[in-house]
Amino acid sequence: MQKLINRRQFLRLAALFPMLLYAKPGSFTSINQTSTSGKFPNILFIVLDTLSARHMSVYGYPRDTTPNIARFAERATVYHSHYAGGNFTTPGTASLFTGTYPWSHRAFHMHGVVVEPYRRKNFFSLTAQETYGVTYSHNLLAESLLNQFKGDLGLYLKTRDLALVDTEYSDLVFPEDYNASFWSEALILRGTGSRPSSLFLSLLYQILSKNEISRISRQYTQRFPLGLSQINDVYYVLEDAVDWLISNLGSLPNPYMAYFHLLPPHEPYFPRREFINYFRDDYKPMAKPTHFSTSTDQVNAVNEQRRLYDAHIAYADSEFGRLIDTLQKEGTLNNTMVILTSDHGELFERGIRGHVTPTLYEPLINIPLIISRPGQTSREDIYDVTSCVDILPTVLHLFGKEIPNWCEGKILPGFNVNNTTTSRNIYAVEAKRNAVHAPLTKGTIALIQKPYKLIHYLNSNKAQVKYELYNLENDPEEVEDLSISNPSVASDLFHQLEIKLTDINQPYLKK
């Protein structure tokens, strides 16, 4: 892959040269050699960003979006009722890392980070003596979190290391203040419609970056005629990350814990050429009632975006298949546990597209979890309700470590014969507008207690519902709200949620 360090990028950096006077010295990649042994298996996390289980054929979706993942599942443990901690990257990945819900780690804002007490409460830090930690993320929201944990990692790859066009530079000047530098750069240079910016610097930035992006887009136009995948002006192709894994996993110290957070099928939905016209069929999703957050998108427009999203999943699935086939051929899977999951899903219904929404419907929070143990040759299906907060205690269990009392997850069924998750409560939280160091009073919380799911809108007004209730066994599409017809169940679950909120809000109440 060609590195794009040229005169144009130098000029962009020049705008930041005065800040060098105040910069702290630091390394752009943290390398910390860790003592490891052959006692434990390697663990490889593949997180496909924005991958909804409700759009995967391996889970019953009518379009054949995931044939390669389905092949992988035939020698893995498949979790059918697995949930994200939130409906976008920051809370979802923070809950995955820490084994706690957003109301504990408090990373529930865009580009948020976990609060200080949780900076060492993650599976990288807690297994740093046993594993060689390796991380990479296409997504700068996940990058913010990984940056907090880099001191306990063996190899911390930055987003730019596998990017085609990298527009971040302030973090090179302020390596110890990643979050502040990123948002400062966005404020001064990027000049989007939602933030103010420096008139001169943002104009210069846009001119230079546009030229660079145009050049690289022309280079890839045959393979990606719709455009290149990007987020926050970081452009990439999925193949480069898969190639890195294929080329480098075999040379990492064992046992390693490698976490790779890859953006497809996150929008924009720009699959490789051969997938663009996938699913031009007569499939029509079930019509559902509108929601108070419904946008003005027309149904046909939403359905076309759904089709492209499904095609993008098929593209990501093909690259995942290439990775797994290569690892199997090379014998890597004989001593490596592969964990395939996501941070959250995506919504194409009720006039809503995407995941930046106050809703917590199943396509947004029901995510895949498929785990292949070293040498596993047969499929196991688990239907107990599980959560991303269960990953940390399961990892600790694999390494013979005690589960800390602050952890809100449980060991996944299938890894502990004495553990059951059948009757537990699972939560998902959306709280982008809530202050970090304040009681949780703004946002949405979902409580899943099989077979029921309660969705509570914390700051609802008279024009909005206070909560919705669904029976996921009888109504998996969440069409029939039972909050009126079954008030006893709704009231009981709401009371349980009120008790939980009272408990988690107590430390943030003014004394």
Structure description:
With 511 residues, the protein is an alpha/beta fold. It has a domain at 31-164 and 228-424: Alkaline Phosphatase, subunit A (3-Layer(aba) Sandwich). Helix content is 30%, strand content 16%. It is built from 14 helices and 16 strands. It has helices at residues 7-14, 67-73, 89-98, 102-105, 123-126, 140-149, 170-173, 178-190, 199-220, 238-248, 299-329, 362-365, 391-398, 487-505; strands at 42-48, 77-83, 132-137, 155-156, 229-231, 234-236, 256-262, 336-341, 347-349, 352-354, 369-372, 380-387, 426-430, 444-449, 452-457, 467-471. The strands form 4 sheets. It has an 8-stranded mixed β-sheet, covered by helices on one side. It has a 4-stranded antiparallel β-sheet with strand order 13-14-15-16, with helices on one face. Strand 14 and strand 15 form a beta hairpin. Helix 1 (7-14) packs antiparallel against helix 9 (199-220) and helix 10 packs parallel to helix 11 (299-329). The longest helix has 31 residues, at 299-329. It is globular. Residues 1-37 and 192-201 have low confidence and may be disordered.
Could you outline the blueprint of secondary structure elements for this entry?
Elements: H1 7-14, E1 42-48, H2 67-73, E2 77-83, H3 89-98, H4 102-105, H5 123-126, E3 132-137, H6 140-149, E4 155-156, H7 170-173, H8 178-190, H9 199-220, E5 229-231, E6 234-236, H10 238-248, E7 256-262, H11 299-329, E8 336-341, E9 347-349, E10 352-354, H12 362-365, E11 369-372, E12 380-387, H13 391-398, E13 426-430, E14 444-449, E15 452-457, E16 467-471, H14 487-505
Parallel strand pairs: 1-7, 1-8, 2-12, 3-4, 3-7
Antiparallel strand pairs: 2-11, 5-6, 8-11, 9-10, 13-14, 14-15, 15-16
Helix pairs in contact: 1-9, 2-11, 10-11
